[in-house]
UniProtKB/TrEMBL annotation:
GN (gene name): LOC105058619
Keywords, alphabetical: Endoplasmic reticulum, Golgi apparatus, Membrane, Protein transport, Transmembrane, Transmembrane helix, Transport
Broad class of where this protein is predominantly found: endoplasmic reticulum
Protein name: Protein YIF1B-B isoform X1
GO biological process, one term: endoplasmic reticulum to Golgi vesicle-mediated transport
Keyword Transferase: no
Pfam family, one: YIF1
InterPro entries on file: Yif1_fam
Subcellular localization(s) per the UniProt record: Endoplasmic reticulum membrane; Golgi apparatus membrane
GO CC, alphabetical: COPII-coated ER to Golgi transport vesicle; endoplasmic reticulum membrane; endoplasmic reticulum-Golgi intermediate compartment; Golgi membrane
Native species: Elaeis guineensis var. tenera
Signal peptide start-end: none
Membrane-traversing stretches: 118-139, 151-170, 182-203, 209-226, 246-263
Membrane topology label: Multi-pass membrane protein
Length: 267
């Protein structure tokens, strides 16, 4: 009965509207704003610190690869003289610095003969592989497998050289040197190797005179270079002086078996 009366024309029920809660909306808006702002600030801080950490470590250990290819003809000629004839280098062995962005940075190789580069090591390694293939052809032993094996041996020798230099620096507390610097120093070995192999192609007996010479020159060059790195990064030089001398001597002597192993083509 009451339902029928409610459905009659002109008899409409008043709508039921919920009472608004201004305090709830205000608290909700303020809370969500605080959460979004806090998460945003934390995210920006986290990403910023992570980016700075990555950039600092990349620049610390790997540096800028383009830096190592800023060379010219004059630098290449002078650098080859220093690597192949370190006894004739009368200048200093320290690197030249310049202020960049409020801090000191090393000048690129084009302006500093003592700066490491990757142009000469890569070109010397390529020359080493080409001369190896030519030597295999003269012996009648050329094959893609033999050349591939020699390529792998060259990379292994380069890796062992880098591991030797890096281990020396770590043992003396100077392991923070950029990795590409060490790769460049280790790759200079292929300049002397290529010279000795080229001489053997024209006169086989010259190899036995040149190989000890280039091994000794590479040892002297690395000793001079590693001393500079150690002086720059290690403050307690007197504390490790005797140990340092033995390790540097071991590094220089290790060049002889490494060079003869890399230069052995089965002749």
């Amino acid at each position: 009965m009451y339902d029928n009366l409610g459905n009659q024309a002109g008899m409409q029920r008043p709508p039921v509207n919920p009472q608004p809660n201004p305090f709830g909306n205000a608290f909700y808006g303020a809370g969500s704003g605080l959460i979004r702002g806090g998460l945003g600030a934390y995210g920006e801080k986290f990403l910023g610190s992570s980016s700075e950490f990555m950039q600092s470590n990349i620049s610390k250990y790997f540096s800028n690869p383009q830096y190592y290819f800023q060379v010219n003809d004059q630098y290449v000629r002078n650098k080859l003289k220093v690597v192949l004839f370190p006894f004739l280098h009368r200048g200093h062995w320290t690197r030249i610095t310049e202020p960049v962005g409020g801090r000191l940075s090393y000048k690129p190789p084009i302006y500093d003969i003592n700066a490491p580069d990757l142009y000469i090591p890569f070109m010397a390694f390529g020359t080493y592989i080409i001369l190896a293939g030519f030597s295999f052809g003269l012996m009648g032993k050329f094959s893609p497998e033999a050349l591939s094996l020699q390529f792998t041996r060259g990379l292994a020798g380069w890796f062992m050289q880098v591991a030797l230099l890096k281990g020396l620096l770590y043992s003396l507390g100077g392991g923070e040197a950029p990795l590409l610097d060490i790769v460049a120093y280790g790759g200079y070995a292929f300049t002397g190797l290529s010279l000795a192999i080229l001489a053997r192609i024209f006169w086989s007996y010259s190899y036995y005179f040149l190989m000890p010479w280039v091994s000794m020159c590479m040892g002297v060059f690395l000793v001079k270079t590693m001393k500079r790195v150690i002086f720059t990064e290690i403050r307690s030089y007197e504390k490790h002086s005797s140990r340092q001398h033995y390790l540097l001597l071991f590094m220089a002597i290790a060049q002889f078996p490494l060079f003869f192993w890399l230069g052995n083509f089965g002749m």
